[in-house]
Amino acid sequence: MDYAIETFHLTKIFSDWWGRVRVYAVDDLNLQIRYNEVFGLLGPNGSGKTTTLKLLLGLLHPTKGRSLVLGGDGADPKINARIGFLPEESYLYRYLNARETLDFYGRLFGLPAKVRKMRIEALLDMVGLTAVANRPVGTYSKGMARRIGLAQALINDPDLLILDEPTTGLDPIGTRQIKDLILKLAQRGKTILLCSHLLADVEDVCDRISILYGGKVQAQGQVKDLLQQTDKRQIITDAITDSAVEKIKQIIEAEHAECVVSSPMERLETFFIKTVTAAQEQAQPTSGAVSTTRLGDFLTGEPAKESILDKLVSAPISEQAAPKSPATEQEHIAAVETSSVQPDEQLLRKLTEPVKPSPSDAAADRKVKTQEVEHKPPKEQEIKKSILDQLTGGTSAGHADKQQPDKSASGEGANA
Amino acid sequence: MHSIWAVATNTVKQALRMKMAAAFIVLLLVLLPVIGFTATGDGTIKGRLQTFVSYGLSLTSLLLCLLTVIASVYSLTSDIQQRQIYTVVTKPIRRFQLLLGKLLGVILLDVALLVLFAAIIYAITLYIPKFAGATGEDIARLNNEFFTARAGLTPAEADVTQDVLNMYKELDKGGQLDQVFPDLSRQEVIDQLTTQKKLEKRAAAVGQDLLWEFHNVRPLDPNESLFIRFKYDVSINPPDSQVYGQWLAGDYRQVKYATKIETQIYSFERKDPIRTFREIQVPADAVAQDGYLAVGFLNVPLNNTVVIFPLEDGLEVLYKADTFTANFARAVLLILLRLIFLACLGTFAASFLSFPVAILLCIVFFATASFSGFVIESFDFLGGNMSSVYSYTLKPIISILPQFDKVNPAKFLIPGRLLSWSLVGRTAGLMVCIKAVLLLLLGLLIFSYREIAKIIV
Fold first, then answer.
1. pLDDT for B246-300, tens place per residue?
2. Which helix (H) or strand (E) holds B209?
3. Which domains does chain A have, with CATH numbers?
4. Which residues of B touch A110 (CB under 8 A)?
5. Measured at the alpha carbon of residue A121, what is the angle toward residues A117 and A125, in degrees to the nearest 5?
6. A153 to chain B: which residues are within 8 Å by CB?
7. Which of these, B331, B321, B344, lies nearest to B401 by C-alpha position?
8. What is the DSSP string of A200-238?
9. Which residues in chain A are contacts of B453 at CB distance < 8 A?
10. Minimal CA separation from A70 to chain B, in Å
11. SS3 letters across A77-126
12. pLDDT range class, residue B78, cuts 50, 70, 90
């Protein structure tokens, strides 16, 4: 089987000036990352994640072993043309503004002026920097620099995206957005290698992960397999009455098992985004508060991103995801996002449709923003209903099935 | 190519926006006019022009050289230091293209700035005579001596090797060698004899004449003048330190072969002080169609001394071979060649050194190249063991470097001398095509194989 990235006994030893071995930064690493997979490289600081990426891209030379990236050498311009790389920090030319920065990178790819212009505007819009695009990037905050860094990694519409700590320096909303983007790109057939020590990020988006320590792989596998506690079961219900709970407890006791009953906690991320959204909604009519402007720009930019991303990545869709019907695509999105993405959808809906403040509905509605927001309220209604069905437990068999497959499943589906 | 161009434009932007170039530009924009209107030279308008052109060009050259070194080194080392290079080399660009792009950017910047400042210097130079209220006479003189590009022809040196050998043999046979040249090696004796013989060929005893023939004399305009520039030396000082001489200039072959006189032969009788340069103005139509010109000197019996024309600079024929403008343009080109060399040097240094070290290396190279003539000469005076140590270590290194002082453009513009295309071409060939390109290739090689990322664990 062909792999997007494959390493063979990749080893990097850092020596001191006398040639004495100081440290094994990467030690006999054998990675196999499939096409169309979101792969997470995890590990504590100094575990060799970044070094591995640098070895893959030819920024460092391996001491031993070798690596194949997209079937070739990671330093070969032909291969580079299909890679997008976001280094651990966004190292930018401080004197260029955002537009010039992207234009520079676009020209390195030899993109014609028209395409470049189109993509730059699309990407700026996507990362929410259109309003500040004429400011030198040296004046950007860390998060803004991160966004422009991400945009430069996408300018060539890469087949393989290598992201080193993509969410550092970003606020939770930005983080959420990058995670969504990763999932979306994965659906469109891209391969993504993600390197992070922010476990929540990895858990949300990765199909498979590998945990590095001391330059060696300590654990590797599908996130679901690694994390699922097969000796435990979890049942989530609506707020049922105490008597119903008692009945259930009795049934469980009859099975000689123990159970804990509690109300599920909302994730902090969800809560944060909800709070910011609420604040923004209040602020906008009155003064259009400055502090939220950027956020607003960024998020209202989001719809455009969808359509443009579609354009950007249209080729892979037709090639790789063509067999799927649009419907299944939609459901994948739904499925994927059920697992964790609620808050974002909710926020997006609120922001783009401030007239409808119904949090529970919004939370349920995870059909993606753009199209509906732009001009299809009726369709939105339908979708909402179907998802509400899912949530409220009126689960038809079909729905239940579709809720199961998460991204890893979909990833494998595309591989097969 | 598109990627080289992208990097080049980015480099120009960097130099301009990081205010690196700005400091130099402002300095020059202020200093050039100041020099132009305050320079006095020796008080004459010509002196003033000479001072201005010399200072103006030298200053522009020096500042642009520094800018070139800094820009070419900084552009690459800062990319590595601040790691923008991670996102650049992982794009479809080869490392040599990145380096060439940086180099091209610096050269483009140099060309733009050099054209700008050269234009300013040129404009001020043309304006100075008007500003200083030059009379018609002044202007005529300036046109002959400054606003011109005069080529100089010196007479071919006589071949005296055989004479010298014969003389040496005779002295040796007669056993007079130790008597005449005590404690000298054979080579030293021969050197002395050679000088002596050569001087003999350039000396005229009383009543004797000397004739020099020049070929390929091509005055730009036959209606203008050419100049015989000479310096007398004498065996016995005349009482008033003056020498009488009769000079002839024209096509000597007409006399020699007694053909029909077609070109005018001019004759001058003059009295000139000894040991100073003098010029005789001769109408340029003295030159024959085929570029032949003969100059004759008769040591008139009035002088009671042998007249000698010193070997180095005793006699020269000067004629206007090109316009001042063209000469000035070539002078600027010469500066550009220097800048291109430095840009290559900077790129080379930056390919494997960090910013401070690379800058230091370049400055040392630049300074050495600027004074290499002086350095080599002064080391040649060292005697004994020191000299051999030096000639196997430092001398080869210095000789590898280009010699900026040898091709200093001001040296040509101040005396209104022709800076020929062939000199520019030779400089370009040696300094840029060979030395700079070698440095650059070495830099490309190193950069292509080095690890770019810093080691961070």
1. 999 998 888 888 887 788 889 999 999 988 888 898 998 888 888 899 999 999 8
2. strand B209-214
3. 5-227 (3.40.50.300), 268-415 (no CATH)
4. 2-3, 92
5. 170
6. 87
7. B344
8. HHHHHH-SEEEEEETTEEEEEEEHHHHH--TT------S
9. 54, 59-60
10. 14
11. HHHHCCEEEECCCCCCCCCCEHHHHHHHHHHHCCCCHHHHHHHHHHHHHH
12. very high
Going from N- to C-terminal start, the domains of chain B cover 2-146+337-449, 161-322
Long-range contacts of B325-330 (CB under 8 A, 24+ apart): B325/B122, B326/B149, B327/B148, B327/B149, B327/B412, B327/B413, B327/B416, B327/B418, B327/B419, B328/B118, B328/B122, B328/B125, B328/B413, B330/B409, B330/B419, B330/B420, B330/B421, B330/B424
Report CB contact under 8 Å: A59, B452.
yes
B75 touches chain A (CB under 8 A): no
Neighbour-count burial of B108, counting CB atoms closer than 10 A to its CB (0-12 exposed, 13-18 middle, 19+ buried): middle
> What single letter denotes the amino acid at residue B49?
L
Contact A109 B89 (CB under 8 A): no
Give the tens place of pLDDT for each residue, B43-64.
788 888 888 999 999 999 999 9
- Residue B453: the pLDDT is 80
DSSP B344-357: HHHHHHHTTS-HHH
- Contact of A104 with chain B, judged by CB distance below 8 Å, is answered with yes
- Residue A64 backbone phi and psi in degrees, to 5: -140, 165
- As for the ipTM of the complex, it is 0.78
Q: Hey, what CATH class is B161-322 in?
A: mainly beta
Q: What confidence score (pLDDT) does residue B186 get?
A: 81
Separate counts of helices (H) and strands (E) for chain A: 19, 10
A271 in contact with B at a CB cutoff of 8 Å? no
| Tokens coding A15 | 């020596």
Q: Which residues of A touch B80 (CB under 8 A)?
A: none
| A184 CA: distance to closest CA in chain B (Å) | 23
Cα A369 from chain centroid (whole Å): 16
Helix or strand run (H / E) with residue B150: strand B149-153
- Is B236 an interface residue toward A (CB < 8 Å)? no
Alpha-carbon dihedral B140, B146, B151, B155, rounded to 10 degrees: 80
**Which residues in chain B have Cβ-Cβ distances shorter than 8 Å to A92?**
84
Q: What tens digit of pLDDT does each residue of A202-254 get?
A: 888 899 999 988 888 888 888 888 877 777 778 888 888 888 888 888 888 88
User: pLDDT value at position A311?
Assistant: 52
pLDDT at A79: 92
